[in-house]
From TrEMBL:
The chain crosses the membrane at residues 28-54, 101-123, 135-157, 169-192. Residues 235-247 have a biased composition (Basic residues). Keywords: Membrane, Transmembrane, Transmembrane helix. Residues 253-262 have a biased composition (Acidic residues). It comes from the Eukaryota. Residues 214-262 are annotated as: Disordered. This is Transmembrane protein.
Length: 262
């Protein structure tokens, strides 16, 4: 029975999924989920609707939205027009800043996994490089899952604990909740799925058939034939029967009559 730690730190090339077709499907699923999770992480950090602060006063219909790094600008009709970043001295402490830190960690780790997975699936051809880099993906994705989950400590900020107010998830927080599910599935897949055996785009360069040059800067004819491969190799020489008979006469003079009859 392979434990989680052994599968995480394993550098063996023995496939965990036995069917190659299932391996390929899982690897392309990893690529797709990495794209989705990376986009969700950017939405979580950049949008200004992570938290909705609603007043308990029935006579008040004001809804205040906050983002992790920005606040919304409202129109006269109280519609969100855009987002602006916080001031450097926004005065927020405690859980809110902790949630910010975890969100940064989320973006960094999922971005690393995003770059590596795209490189392995599309461009990186060296087998050993893919194995080593895939090990880093197996570390980054679970860490991103934990960081995304801990981002919700922002709801423990002081404004949410004040009397007369309550906080609810905004649009960016709902995306973050979906990203928790995506990252969980992705973390399981990168653990049980082996590193891609080949990339989508193959760039093959064969430098073994380059003929060496002489002092004049030109390759000799024999070296060129050897460098050009099997196509330009000269055909094997045919054996001459007369030479064979002559050699046999010299070795066995008593059997000359028999050889002449042949």
């Amino acid at each position: 029975m392979v434990t989680f730690g052994e599968r995480l730190l394993s550098s063996e090339d023995e496939p965990y999924l036995k069917d190659p077709i299932n391996q390929m499907k899982s690897q392309w699923t990893v690529l797709l989920l990495t794209w989705i999770s990376w986009i969700f992480a950017l939405v979580t950090v950049t949008r200004c609707t992570f938290i909705k602060i609603v007043s308990d006063d029935e006579s008040s219909s004001d809804i205040k939205s906050l983002g992790l790094f920005s606040v919304p600008i409202y129109t006269a009709d109280k519609d969100i027009r855009g987002c602006v970043s916080y001031e450097s001295n926004d005065g927020r402490t405690g859980g809110f800043k902790a949630g910010r830190a975890f969100s940064i960690f989320l973006v960094v780790t999922i971005s690393i996994a995003f770059v590596i997975v795209n490189g392995m699936m599309l461009f990186i051809q060296t087998h050993m490089t893919r194995r080593l880099m895939y090990l880093l993906v197996r570390v980054c994705v679970p860490v991103a899952f934990i960081a995304n989950t801990l981002t919700f400590v922002t709801f423990s900020m002081e404004e949410c604990s004040e009397k007369g107010t309550k906080c609810s998830p905004g649009g960016a927080a709902i995306v973050a909740i979906l990203n928790v599910l995506v990252l969980f599935i992705l973390a399981v897949l990168v653990i049980v799925t082996p590193a891609p055996s080949q990339c989508a785009f193959q760039f093959v360069y064969d430098f073994t058939k380059v003929a060496p040059r002489d002092h004049s800067g030109q390759s000799s004819s024999s070296e060129q034939k050897h460098a050009q491969g099997d196509i330009y190799r000269s055909p094997p020489k045919k054996k001459n029967k007369k030479n064979i008979f002559r050699k046999r006469r010299e070795e066995n003079p008593e059997n000359q009559d028999d050889l002449e009859q042949i």
